[in-house]
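Researcher: We're teaching a course module on how sequence relates to structure. For the next exercise, students receive a sequence and then see the predicted structure as tokens, so they can try to spot secondary structure elements on their own. Here is the exercise chain.
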Amino acid sequence: MVQLVILRTVVGNWFRSRFTDEAGASLIEYTFLLALIVVVALVALVYFGQTNANVLNNSANSIANHP
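Model: And here is the predicted structure for the students to work with:
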């Protein structure tokens, strides 16, 4: 009976140490942060994309037409 209690304690401690480890939480948080940055960059690209294209085309045309 004592061995069963010891085994249950050892196994319980092992499971508790495996599932309460928060080392993986940082990876998940960084993944969410990276996904948020990507979404913001894509929204900015869509929103400002045509304006940036016009500015770059005007600059390229000015350089090409310069004597």
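Model: If you want an answer key for the exercise: The mean pLDDT is 81. The chain has one domain: 2-64.
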